[in-house]
Amino acid sequence: MTYKKHISQSNDLLDRFSSAFAGIKSHSNLPSGTTPFIWAIAVLIVVIFSAFYFNVRANNETILRTNLMKSTAKVADNIEMRMRGISANMARMIEKMELDGINSAVVNKYGREIISSSPEVILLRVIEPSGKGLESVVNPRLGRSDLRQYNYLDYPQVVRDAIGDAFLSNRVSYSSFWFTPGDISSPSVVIIYPFAIGEKTYALLARLSLNKLLEVSTPQSLLSDYEFSFLHGTKEIAGRAAYNPPDDYTIPSYVRAADPLPPSIQLYGCNVLESPMIFASPLIYWLGALMLFLLLSLFFLNREMRRNQSDLERALKELELRRSIEDSMNLALVITDLDNKIVYTNGQTEEITGYSEEELLGKTPPYPFWGDSSELPSQLLKDRPHEEPGKPYRFDLTIRCRNDETLEALMLAMPFYSAYNEHIGWIYMIQDNTVEAQSMNLTNDSIASYERLLNSVLSCISAVMQKPTGSMLGIHNNHYTEQLGNTADGHLEISKAFKEPFDPQGNRQGEVWVDSLGRWFSVAEARVTLPGGSHVTLQSALDITKRKINEQEFEEQTSKMENSSRLITLGEMASTITHEINQPLTAITAYANTALEVIDRAPEVNKTQVLEIYRKIANQAARIDKIIKNIRAFAKRRPTTLECVSLNSVFSDTMELGRLIEKKYAGVHVVYELPAVVPDVICDPVQIMQILMNLIRNAAEAILEHGSKDKTITVSAKVGAKDVELSVGDHGPGISDTMKASLFTPFFSTKKNGLGLGLSTCQTIAESHNSRLRVRDNEGGGTVFFFDLKICFTKDSENKKQN
Ligand code: ADP
């Protein structure tokens, strides 16, 4: 029966272990904690690539800009060459006209030649200085003939300026550009070439289309990569290239002068493609792709590692939890890998064998605790693998403990399978099979059946087994765990606090104070001695700290009550004493006095002697009388009646009595320090007077007895927010600190004839006024007694205050 239980237990274990191991095994391929390293590599890759990219880009840009500049310069050269060519042809035509005169045949012939070789020329015309046209040739491409006649004023201003300039300087002049609405050859510029025939001056005017000029000046080979325009400022006036400022790097552009055209017209060149320098090199494409690949790989690697790490942590946590469960079992658990190397032991292994986990991990057979004769069960089991997976192999084993003792154990062994049913090792379960261990188990078993019952008890119930290797906590109820934890320590501390030994039956009980826990327990213990000599102690401990505190408080209260009842008794006794002895006392006094008179008259009696005797009698009698009166006064103290009274009236009564004291104690002087306005207070005026008189009398006695120089007694009242502090101070001998402690206890007196009831009575009165009579050292020596009275804030007193 018992082993069946163990077998099912071991199946459970097998499952738990194999999954934990499989988890750790499958996740331990990748190193953990390298995430920052991966990020560093990623950043490095990005930095290297960016540096490379920007370098290539910068190089590309320089090359592109240089090529653009060269191409634009080439176009500008062509423009200049063409225009100079036109001027040269115009010079030849002028030479002919100077020989043959200005006639349409010459103009047409030579003009047509110029136009055919330079299609950008739209018109050639011979003009007078007035601007009047004499002969014209029009580019037939335009199909226009209306340009033949012109007056000076018909020309645009820029042309008029150029004409004026040419005639004035007698040099070839170039106009700026102008637009003619509806003219496809617009914008145009003119070349004015002045000449003279005899006395008369003329000029040959050639009108050029800027668009055509640009077109014929741009080599075909450049058109695929570049575009050109003529600019006026930043505005394109001819050509295809749209202006792009030079600081816009998306399209490199270049602007330069276009001689011999006037400076208002500039040649502008730009790249055809937008951002042609980005990824211009195929190398960059490949590197970019490689970078992306590397980054993605790193990202996935990182994700995988993080997942693994959290899995590993979870698995370790699970393992930790399982460990604590396995440690709390009564079985020692040893797991080996396939090479019989120990990979795991639980806490109970150390309990049973004495070897710690550190000492056993990594050990191969012969294991230090393994009995001599026994063969490793893995050897036996190997011969019949997987026959009945999970069913343990069972045999007896002699354990050799660390301290060289041996003990008989029951061994259960079986192959250890992973979650994937892979045979990965061996699992051994060892049960301490010695008599006492069994008894302990039996004790535990029998207690276990009462566990529910035990949990309903308020005491901490526990069973602890004491073995040479240490103490082991057996069965214990929930209260024990809650109050004393999960170890045997609490049980042992309580046991240690016991002063009595166990009785012959192995029992003891009592209330103990456990110093280390700072608590009281009511404890009952029963000790069972096992056959091997070990003990199991059953303990029931109830926390009674609260009750103990209550008891102590109760004791204090009782002693206080006893004190007061003693006073009450004293009061009762006093009246009895008074009643009993008052009459005889009167008689004694009377007799004594009479005797004195009689003897006084008889001359033969030794008068002095008898007189002395009788005076003593009288004195003693008076003394008894005084004592009795005092006691009676104390006992008869009437109940306090608190009312709202004027403090002034209390003082005036006190002052009268004070004068009597001054008379009785010669030399003593009572001074009153009172504020101008004294509030009403809540008090019993007669009792307050009693306190003040007592204190004044005590002060007077102290002053005289001590022979102080300063014989002033100061009675003062200090008004606070809610109270008035009344005090009586003197410059007598003062009171030592030890004396201060017992000053207010009844019957404490340092005087020869003192009763020691004065201050204690005063204290009782002060307490009935919700205050306490306190004492402090007076400044400059002596003593001050003080107490408070509550100010009375009735409507009446408020009115009084206002008035
Ligand atoms: P009694 O006056 O009968 O001794 P009290 O209770 O009035 O009893 O006083 C107790 C003791 O306190 C006195 O014996 C005295 O030693 C001390 N005591 C009281 N008042 C003073 C004081 N003003 N200065 C010094 N000692 C004082």
UniProtKB/TrEMBL annotation:
Keywords: ATP-binding, Kinase, Membrane, Nucleotide-binding, Phosphoprotein, Transferase, Transmembrane, Transmembrane helix, Two-component regulatory system. GO terms for molecular function: ATP binding; phosphorelay sensor kinase activity. The keyword Nucleotide-binding applies. Residues 317-364 form the PAS domain. Residues 576-793 form the Histidine kinase domain. Its EC number is 2.7.13.3. GO terms for biological process: regulation of DNA-templated transcription. The keyword Phosphoprotein applies. PANTHER family: PEROXIDE STRESS-ACTIVATED HISTIDINE KINASE MAK3, SENSOR HISTIDINE KINASE. This is histidine kinase.
